[in-house]
Amino acid sequence: MKIPWLPVLILLTGLLYIFIIPDNPYAVKIFFKLIPMLLIIRYAYLQFSAKKTITHWLILIGLFFCMLGDGLIGEFVVGLSAFLIGHLFYLAGFLSRWHFSKVRFAMILPISLYAFMIGREIIAALLRDGNNVLIVPVLIYMLAISLMAWSAIMTGNKWAIIGSILFVLSDSILSWNMFVSDIAFSDQLIMTTYYTAQFLIAHSLRSFAIDTSQTIVKTSSHL
Question: What does DSSP assign to residue 75?
């Protein structure tokens, strides 16, 4: 069953959290932060094809763990761990829809260069501020999200690609603002790109369903 107004509700609740809900009390802030993600998870489930595939379930579980990360980010390492698990599920889901292309495969190079440039600054800032304990978790997370973005590109699915790139951008702004230097309107930029990224990743499941049905048709026509 499709709910045509669900994307509008996701947009409205996201804007409500980003621009209206105050920072305190914190519990109320977190509650409203999770509402758009709950709706996005519901939207993702509605994109499932009649014949559900491992890709659909892996992405859905990834969305769930990212939502946990949203709620637990006050405990930075715990929240980061939840997001890490989410990215690993995204990675597995996208790899299950691998479509090789030399051009797409070569995108590992600019992704690696970007991760190196951002990572170098963040690690330098962590060392400067004496946050050495965060270096390994941050490096592992950066590796995971970079591989996630590359695996999304390898699917050839435009929604997954745009969503994964926006996710990388959102986390880059968050990390830079948290560890390196302040960024104007960082909260708005982080959450706008984040919610959009998650919505597009959820929306990509519809295209994966179409791809699956087309594959079945093509296979049948050759029999």
Answer: S
Residue 40 domain boundaries: 6-221
Q: How do residues 88-135 score in pLDDT, each as one tens digit?
A: 999 999 999 999 999 999 999 999 999 999 999 999 999 999 999 999
Assigned domain for 109 exists = yes
* Distance set, CA 10 to CA 41, 66, 91, 129, 171 (Å): 10, 16, 24, 38, 20
Output the pTM of the full model. 0.91
Helix (H, G, I), strand (E, B) or coil at 123: helix
Q: Is residue 1 part of a domain?
A: no
Q: Which of 94, 221, 160, 202 is nearest to 213 (CA)?
A: 221
66 part of a folded domain: yes
**In 3D, which of 68, 79, 44 has the Cα closest to residue 202?**
44
Counting other chains too, the contacts that 115-124 makes at CB distance below 8 Å and 24 or more residues apart are 115/142, 115/143, 115/146, 118/142, 118/172, 118/175, 118/176, 121/176, 121/180, 122/175, 122/176, 122/179, 122/180
Per the CB < 8 A criterion, the answer to whether 19 and 188 are in contact is yes
> How many domains does one find in the chain?
1
169: in domain = yes
pLDDT in tens, 54-87: 999 999 999 999 999 999 998 999 999 999 999 9
The DSSP call for residue 176 is I
